[in-house]
Amino acid sequence: MEFITLNNGVKMPAEGIGTFLLTPDEAETAVLSALKDGARLIDTANAYCNEKAVGRAMKKSGLLREEIFLETKLWPTFYTDADAVDKTLARLDTDYIDLLLIHQPAGDYVAGYRLMEKAYKEGKVRAIGLSNFNEEQIKEILSICEVKPTILQTEVHPYAQQKKLKAFLAENGMVIQAWYPLGHADKGLLEEPLFTRLAAKYGKSNVQIILRWHIQAGNVVIPGSKNPAHIHDNFDVFDFALTDAEMQEITTLNKDKRYYEVTEDKLAAFATMFPPVDDQK
């Protein structure tokens, strides 16, 4: 595993497993599988309704809590709840969260950020950050924050490399974390001739080439899967390195193509949606 250091000195694995769209049973099995394969970063969220399952998998893994980097996200309808972080901790069955994010720039996200700052100061959270925020929204948080955000989780892949946003984040001491790191499994992206050529050269798969590109580009990556073989292969990317020329070749694939667009209507809906967090297995 390789690591990045956040702006508050906390070390974070460069790759982990995402649990978006996984049922509790799927999440528990996938996280256990990933931890056995060397993963130490787990990403979940209030809205995924599988936090309890993630907590169970962590316990069942036999690993010490401090060996695992646990990341989760607060949902907009909980931003103004004084006990939102404590309830999240209870669902995860843990005393602290390594990285807590504001999930969406919807509702009273400033109140949500204040809630995270308080939890950080109380030692319940080791680092805080943002998810799905654009540059202007990040600037707003930077202008009012007492504890600086460490990371932005957003859509990043070879077709949407987010160069301008990454430069802005770097100027402000923030790291980018990629969801949809494989472009929502777009066949056109996964079967790019460049990746096929590099996969043949290194004895890897096209997916492994893409994940290796992310890591060398400084992107923290959280591919999601419930397939044990895929999970294993996703973490088998630390025994080779792409050359500078190959990294530059991949740069030319950028199309600023996103597979998910945040609209005002979606954000308005998020601000009134209550995930059934208390009903999860």
From TrEMBL:
Q: Which residues form the NADP-dependent oxidoreductase domain?
A: 23-254
Which residue spans adopt a coiled-coil conformation according to this UniProt entry?
Answer: none
Recorded hits in Gene3D superfamilies, A to Z, give: NADP-dependent oxidoreductase domain (3.20.20.100)
Record SUPFAM superfamilies: NAD(P)-linked oxidoreductase
InterPro entries this protein is in?
A: AKR (IPR020471), Aldo/ket_reductase_CS (IPR018170), NAD(P)_OxRdtase_dom_sf (IPR036812), NADP_OxRdtase_dom (IPR023210)
The keyword Lipid metabolism belongs to this UniProt entry's keyword annotation: no
Q: Which UniProt keywords apply?
A: NADP, Oxidoreductase
Claim: Transmembrane is one of the keywords in the record: no
- Classification via Pfam families: Aldo_ket_red
Question: What family does this belong to?
Answer: Belongs to the aldo/keto reductase family.
Quote the PANTHER family the UniProt record gives. Answer: 2,5-DIKETO-D-GLUCONIC ACID REDUCTASE, NADP-DEPENDENT OXIDOREDUCTASE DOMAIN-CONTAINING PROTEIN
Its protein name is Aldo/keto reductase
Q: Which organism is it from?
A: Faecalibacterium wellingii
